[in-house]
Amino acid sequence: MKHLYRTLTWPEVRERAEQGAVIVIGVAAIEQHGPHLPIDVDNVLVEHVTEEAARRSDGLILTAPMIHYGFNEHNMGFPGTITVRETVFMDYVYDVAHSFVRQGFDRIVLINGHGSNQMLCNLVARRIVNTTKAFCTAAAHWWLAKPAVDRLRESKFPGGMAHACEFETAMYMHLQPELVKHHEIGTREAPSTINEFLFDDLFGSGPMHFVNRWSRISESGVEGDPNLATPEKGREFAECSIENLIKFCRLFREMKVQPERDFNYQNPNL
Ligand SMILES: [Zn+2]
Predict the structure, then answer these.
(1) Residue 225: inside a domain, yes or no?
(2) Which of 6, 38, 52, 248 has its C-alpha lying 20 to 30 A from 23's C-alpha?
(3) Is residue 74 a contact partner of residue 82, using CB atoms and an 8 Å limit?
């Protein structure tokens, strides 16, 4: 069965909606990833996880063409970065997700590969739930890899895994090894740990939310320790994300939708 939405004809789209396919939309960014990785890291990682999960899901998942650009104003001091304003980004992702709902799909999953997109994707998912009868949820792909990260992580917490770090570099080494500039790895920066309230890591941040402009705090654009990356770790991270995404989509498909109720006073004058 086809697993990529873009390869379907319209009668096939209708059929898959009727069969209850779960739509997975990858969301990423074009952004600097230090001197050792290309600017398409977030796209490559998300595309692999979302398309491979669909391929292995026996028709449960249909992966949609992804959203290539993200919310990135904080990184505009580095060449290569493209940013979309937060409100435009949210409206755009909402309209894409909502188009699937209008076709009859009732389970939508946003899989994000860029930290700053996450809170916006969460809000988009909530907007879909608030404005339609469909269920929509959002997650960063690295959270789905957490069991493998817990097993293999060598960089310190917090700060060792944040951007172009052990995690992202390992995944990219696994997927596009020929594009990794190994001689440029050596940059180790963790400017994200400012104090006990302000720190940043893919796997947990401090209680205060604060994202500085990166050119103020970073020389290389790296946040974390890419020296600890290996392609073997990258393969394990990717496999864990893919398996967990399939597992989640099965559970998401089975979730029952309870009828909505209105406990408010029904004022006859209104
Ligand atoms: Zn990234």
Answers:
(1) yes
(2) 38
(3) no
pLDDT tens readout for residues 132-148: 999 999 999 999 999 99
Q: Dump pLDDT digits (tens) for 35-78.
A: 999 999 999 999 999 999 999 999 999 999 999 999 999 999 99
Residue 18 C-alpha to ligand 1 middle, in angstroms? 35
Ligand 1 centre distance from Cα of residue 203 (Å): 14
How far apart are the CA of 132 and the centre of ligand 1, in A?
Answer: 31
Q: Is residue 238 part of a domain?
A: yes
Residue 269 resides in a domain: no
Residue 213 CA, ligand 1 centroid: distance in Å: 16
Token look-up 């952004």 returns: 31
Tally of domains in the chain: 1
Nearest to 132 by CA among 105, 92, 110, 93: 105
Q: CATH code at 74?
A: 3.40.50.10310
State how far the Cα of 24 lies from the Cα of 29, in Å rounded to an integer: 17
Rounded to an integer, the average pLDDT of 248-261 is 96
